[in-house]
Specification:
CATH superfamily of the largest domain: Acetylglutamate kinase-like
Largest sheet: 8 strands, mixed
Bound molecules: glutamic acid
Number of strands: 13
Number of domains: 2
CATH class of the largest domain: Alpha Beta
CATH topology of the largest domain: Carbamate kinase
Strand order of the largest sheet: 3-4-2-1-5-7-8-6
Number of helices: 14
Radius of gyration: 22 Å
CATH architecture of the largest domain: 3-Layer(aba) Sandwich
Strand content: 15-25%
Length: 375
């Protein structure tokens, strides 16, 4: 994908902040999410895929929990999230004719290679089945050590795990300004940002929003993660009616943080240089031709041998004719793979006692998680 052209996106993550879900800070409203849902419907009709990262569970559950006078305790907040999450999901579901799915995750889940692959597979499977994934942090279990902490950064991590082309962060501000618009009448909105430098961070003041966790800093952190990985990112004002009709018409709105490199080359770099391969698969000529010629996923049928010690989600090299031709993330552990290599996918269940997913996830390495070294 041409990074200078954001309009040809195929898969988007839309982050919707608490200020849009629960504008008064204590219950859900569909006022601002209806235009977002309409944009999502239009995008889906155009053949695009959309994943929502939604905040608002704590705000939506606020009225349900009796709180101490001396401020809200962690348990009270987690209870608000538990009850509010249902209200937030019901509110979204009312806006769509298709089904919505709830995914609650923590940073701990994204850090764990096996769970990371499971999240990736679940999102993939939901999208294939025309279901809208709606993701939030699992606030009721999240402790300081395992939580992302804010949904801006969570949305960036979701954009990475789900292989999105674009991230839209919908908030109650128009975008990034060159000065604080609340105190400086001459402050100007920056239409685009080429690189997120220290000077750009210096433009972000403290959050003014009492409902949401994030402020401008977390949005910039999110945009830094995504743009470095080839994902164009926008901060847009979700309270402004025109925002979504403009986005539907591929018109620029808010602040566009430009992807600094191509998504594929960023992924290639990550797989090739950042990850350490924990094993190696030797493949046959048929598999080599399928990988190089057709951009196919790697199936068990074409694997001759497996070496090394790896678990699900680890990076592994692919060798053909004594040459490493690719690297990818394995869907299976070494022990599992040893039992199924050379076999047809239809036999997996009787050999392993389980099937990883539906017919869509029988690959040993999915082509989305694979880089070819000489392409
Ligand atoms: N996960 C929190 C909630 O649902 C929101 C975090 C955030 O707004 O950044 O209330």
């Amino acid at each position: 994908m041409n990074t200078q052209n954001w309009t040809n996106w195929q898969r988007a993550v839309i982050k919707v902040g608490s200020a849009l879900i629960a504008p008064n800070g204590d219950q859900v409203s569909d006022q601002y999410i209806l235009p977002i849902a309409q944009f999502i419907n239009e995008s889906r009709l155009a053949g695009k895929e959309v994943i929502i990262v939604s905040s608002g569970s704590v705000a939506a559950g606020r009225n349900e929990i009796n709180c101490h006078d001396q401020g809200v305790t962690i348990a009270e907040k987690q209870a608000m999230a538990a009850v509010g999450q249902v209200k937030m999901m019901e509110n979204w579901q009312r806006c769509f004719d298709v089904s919505c799915a709830q995914l609650l995750i923590t940073h701990g889940d994204l850090r764990d290679r096996r769970r990371y692959v499971n999240i990736k597979n679940t999102v993939r499977e939901l999208l294939i089945n025309n279901i809208i994934p709606i993701i939030n942090e699992n606030d009721t279990v999240a402790t300081q050590e395992i939580k992302v902490g804010d949904n801006d950064n969570l949305a960036a991590l979701v954009a990475l795990v789900s292989d999105a082309d674009v991230l839209f962060i919908c908030s109650d501000i128009d975008g990034l300004y060159d000065a604080d618009p609340k105190t400086n009448r001459n402050a100007k909105l920056l239409p685009s940002v080429d690189a997120i430098t220290k000077d750009i961070y210096a433009l972000a003041g403290d959050t003014q929003n009492k409902i949401a966790t994030g402020g401008m800093i977390t949005k910039l952190q999110a945009a830094e993660k995504t743009t470095n990985n080839g994902i164009n990112t926008f901060i847009v004002n979700g309270k402004n009616e025109n925002t979504f009709s403009k986005l539907s018409n591929n018109q620029h709105v808010g602040t566009w943080f430009k992807a600094v490199n191509n998504k594929d080359s960023a992924k290639k770099q990550w797989l090739q240089y950042t990850l350490h391969a924990s094993g190696k698969l030797v493949i046959d000529e048929g598999a080599q031709a399928a990988l190089l010629g057709n951009g196919a996923s790697l199936l068990a049928k074409g694997i001759v041998s497996a070496q090394g010690d790896f678990v699900r989600g680890d990076a592994i090299d692919i060798e053909y004719n004594n040459e490493i031709i690719a690297r990818g993330l394995s869907q299976y552990s070494k022990a599992e793979l040893a039992l199924i290599l050379g076999k047809d996918s239809a036999e997996f269940e009787s050999i392993l006692g389980f099937r990883l997913g539906s017919k869509h996830t029988e690959e040993i390495i999915h082509r989305d998680d694979l880089v070819l070294f000489n392409s």
